[in-house]
Amino acid sequence: MPRTTPLSDIRNIGIIAHVDAGKTTTTERILYYTGRKHTIVDVHDTKDLKSSTTTDYLEQEQKRGITIQSAAVSTFWRKKKINVIDTPGHVDFTIEVNRSLRVLDGAVVVFDGVAGVEPQSETNWRLADNYGVPRMCYVNKMDRSGANFLRCVDMIKKRLGSRPLPVQLPIGSEDNFKGMIDLVEMQALVWDSDDKDAEPAKIDITADIADKLNITVPSDRAILAQIAKYRSELVDTCLEQDDAAMEAYLNDGTEPSADVLRKCLRKGTISGAFNPVLCGSSYKNKGVTQVLDAVVDYLPAPTDVAAIKTMDEDGNPVGERICSDDEPFSALAFKVINDAYGALTFCRVYSGVLTKGASVQNTTRGKREKIGRMVEMFAKEANAIEEARAGDIIALVSLAETETGDTLCDSANPVILERMRFPDPVISVSVKPKNKAEQEKFGAALGKMVRADPSLHLETDRETGQTILRGMGELHLEVTLDRMRTEFNVEGIMGQPQVAYRETFTKPISEQYIHKKQTGGSGQFAEVWITFEPLERGSGFIFEDETVGGSVPREYVPSVEKGLKMQKEDGVLAHYPTVDFKARLTDGSYHDVDSNALTFEIAAKACFREAIRKANPILLEPVMRVETVTPADYLGDVIGDINRRRGMIQEQLERGTNIAVVATVPLSEMFGYIGHLRGMTSGRASYTMEFSHYDPVPKMVADTVIAEAAKAKTAAA
Which residues make up the binding site for GTP (predicted)? Predict the structure, then answer.
């Protein structure tokens, strides 16, 4: 089957932004104006769960009014095929933006006209930088109170370190937002209503345009008074991309045509020389078709961007795979989801042709996969297709071996494509099924959720036996459990993981213990003399045999050590393991008939219990090395919060424009930290945490821990 859409006519783009900037609203309008939908559903109308926008179809998305899972839709505009991925804006779901940007050729970055560059805007922009994704900017919500286009452009320049280039200027703002000045065509686009089918009037630009359009606010009039200045900046910047046009302009003052400007804008956008900036109000149906025109005119086709790199097994670049149907087949699996169709593996085809029924190689895992159903996704709808070609974004149904980041390719021409980089989880909780009878079902569902989301990690705490789920934030983990309820019909309970406390000796002590039992027939006898000594933090447990003259037969010494190792795992304060001590077996005695390995093991256990009670035992707690990176504006708040958490500041380091605060903080004080940190820094700070050492627990805290342990043991009994 021949190619129906030329590669040069495909645009693979993402809509990225901070939460609530209007990504999903913009996507809804894109689908309406391109004819893929005949109605528009607004985000705030979905919380009753009776309707949903096209891309926010999960129950959790409808209830919260936010995007949680990126969704792919395809549409056509000016005979160009546009594959759009609507991504989340909440920091907990950055993984969705990460993996989407990895396979996209361009992005539309949406900004709130009032808030401008927000924390997640910065995060997403850096991700796009990492993957070298060309992008254009869309300043949305120009109808809202406080909207300021020029301030937003200035923030893009200063906070993102980019070169914003306005190709439009707003006509009015807030309630009086009427349209925009098109600096490429040099005409005004003015809407006389907010109706979704209203067409803008095209008006010539004159010196009295502000009066003509009844623009009265001084700041709005000031923008219109500078049309010539912004047009000149646009022309000068664009002509940097075209030497011939620049020469004609400098020599004889020839103004470049609109087509020449568009060609230059496209070249500069793709190379990253600048980022075109548009404006509008998606909710009021103004400016979305202009965004679509800009996507077609300025953002790259798959053939306009650099070929994807191929790697060796150690992740070192070894070559590249050109985006062409004539190359051998290769694709990158960038997302796995579980839905009504089974496991869906989303893939970006980078080269070659994939046909239904083909057998391909998963070079990442050394496995083979048989391609059954292939579908093109329209949000939650799956449309069956027979083949996929270079540049396509498709989903494969029920692949057994393939996970996020894996390469699928022609087995005769194996390659490993450049992989994705995933963030490390920053928070963990214990999880268990609400109904114990559903343990197996719960475990299987949890496994599928973790397979679908690489920013989720699953582990079992060997000491507490708890199942620990690690993720990007409390909302991330909460949504994961809620999705297990709706998608797998199994409910879970989320709690805090137990802190792995330790117990230890504080002074040396020598203890004698005689185990003697007579029950008729052969009895039980063993005597041990053991000296216990505290060691430095991190030393663990050391056992030494110092007996002489066979007071304890050699064959029974290992039993003494075994008894101590077993008993030290159940401390006397709160039943936590005892660490950092040395046990020296100095003497003992035995009975020819009544002594054996078991009696010496029992004697050692009892000797340990007696000794530690007399050695002033204390609780130790895990202390973490925490590095918090924050803008300088919030430094005082961050340090104050760390001090309140019993933290000790170690040092402060410069991290570009931010400051890194390095501290040691008890793990028990770190639960919920990410939420507090984001709250007091408007989400602009981040942190990493790793184990440092164990320290004694303050008495007041220790008393609480011991009381809770006793209560738990009583309840279990």
Answer: 17-24, 86-90, 140-143
Same domain membership, residue 556 and residue 481: no
User: What CA–CA distances, in Å, run from 437 to 60, 432, 448, 491, 717?
Assistant: 26, 11, 19, 11, 21
Same domain, 598 and 688: no
Overall size of the chain counted in residues: 717
CATH at residue 444: 3.30.70.870
Between the CA of residue 127 and those of 134, 160, 183, 403, 434, what are the distances in Å? 12, 12, 30, 21, 38
- Which residues are known binding-site members for GTP? 17-24, 86-90, 140-143
Q: How far apart are CA 608 and CA 602, in angstroms?
A: 10
The binding site consists of 17-24, 86-90, 140-143
Q: What is the dihedral of CA 455, 460, 462, 463, to 10 degrees?
A: 90
- Phi first, then psi, for residue 408 (nearest 5°) are -110, 135
pLDDT, tens digit, 9 for 90 and up, residues 78-132: 999 999 998 886 666 778 888 899 999 999 999 999 888 876 788 889 889 989 9
Pairing of strands 359-362, 416-417: unpaired
Residues 363, 407: Cα–Cα separation, whole Å: 6
Distance between CA atoms of 17 and 108, rounded to whole angstroms?
A: 9
Comparing C-alpha atoms, which of 599, 585, 689 is closest to residue 645?
689
Distance CA 445, CA 467 (A): 13
Residue 479 DSSP SS3: helix
Residue type, 444: A
Question: Quick one: 630 and 695 in the same domain?
Answer: yes
Is residue 266 very low, low, confident or very high in pLDDT (cuts 50, 70, 90)? very high
**Cα(372)–Cα(363) distance, rounded to whole angstroms?**
19
